[in-house]
Design brief:
Elements lengths: L15 E11 L2 E12 L3 E5 L6 H9 L6 E6 L2 E2 L5 H6 L2 E4 L11 H10 L5 H15 L14 H13 L5 E5 L7 H18 L2 E5 L3 H7 L2 E6 L2 E6 L1 H6 L1 H8 L4
Parallel strand pairs: 3-8, 3-9, 6-7, 7-8
Antiparallel strand pairs: 1-2, 1-4, 4-5, 9-10
Helix pairs in contact: 3-4, 3-5, 4-5
């Protein structure tokens, strides 16, 4: 398939997702300290940092699962800060989790279909859309399998398919390569590139596998102890002394 399963409608203005000056405290501990982030249409932005740097917390702020102490979230030209997670999803924010978090006894097509149903799509249209997504992912042959019969790599793809079934403007991916072997990572990288070109969504990529981040991302933002310590082109960030000390260590 050349076209994506749900090529996002053209908007009159260039879409952008932003968080501005976000701070999050957990029981007196500052998890995120005055962090801002911008993700543009069709951009792949890498978000990296050591464990505990605040990356997942920031995604939770973006998607409405974590209320910040200060700061705001803006998407497609309007504030999202007061919206619940499901309303943000209907504004075009989708996410995948560190675990696939599929419905294990439901079939693959039912799992993907659930993404469209959550957006208010009627059952027949949701099923048709799910079938199209699975065709695009190359998973038509497992459509009727139960999710708990899949390989680990296929589970991850189905989780991505469920997110794509919501027709996202922005897809936030939390460590999608975790547990994948080298061949599966290459497949994932190609899939992410196709999501940009075929579907046209902006992608926020949280990932510890640096080879994937630096191969895919237009820009990279680095968090350390809840603060942004660097942001810019991948080659510039990779050479940044603060980043190397905080996270990268010896260059790969």
């Amino acid at each position: 398939m050349h076209d994506g399963p749900a090529r996002r409608r053209n908007d009159s203005a260039r879409a952008e997702l932003r968080v501005e000056n976000v701070t999050v405290d957990f029981q007196g501990i500052r998890a995120i300290d005055d962090v801002s982030l911008q993700l543009a249409d069709r951009e792949i932005l890498g978000l990296i940092g050591p464990n505990g740097a605040g990356k997942t917390t920031l995604v939770n702020v973006l998607t409405g699962f974590q209320r910040p102490n200060t700061g705001r979230v803006i998407g497609v030209g309007k504030s999202l800060s007061a919206l619940s997670p499901w309303r943000r999803a209907r504004e075009g924010l989708a996410r995948t989790f560190q675990g696939a978090m599929l419905f294990p006894k439901m079939t693959v097509v039912e799992n993907v279909e659930s993404g469209a149903l959550a957006m208010g799509v009627k059952r027949n249209a949701a099923r048709s859309h799910a079938i199209q997504v699975l065709q695009w992912l190359g998973l038509s042959d497992v459509a009727d399998k139960a999710a708990d019969e899949l390989s680990f790599g296929a589970e991850r793809k189905v989780a991505i398919g469920r997110a794509l079934a919501t027709n996202p403007r922005f897809l936030l991916m939390d460590e999608p390569a975790a547990g994948l072997n080298d061949a599966e990572c290459l497949d994932l990288a190609e899939l992410i590139r196709r999501m940009r070109t075929d579907i046209g969504c902006g992608i926020l990529l949280i990932e510890h596998r640096m080879s994937l981040v630096f191969a895919l991302c237009d820009r990279v933002q680095v968090l350390d102890q809840g603060r942004t310590i660097a942001i810019g082109l991948p080659e510039v960030v990779k050479a940044d002394k603060r980043v190397r000390e905080a996270y990268l260590g010896v260059a790969e």
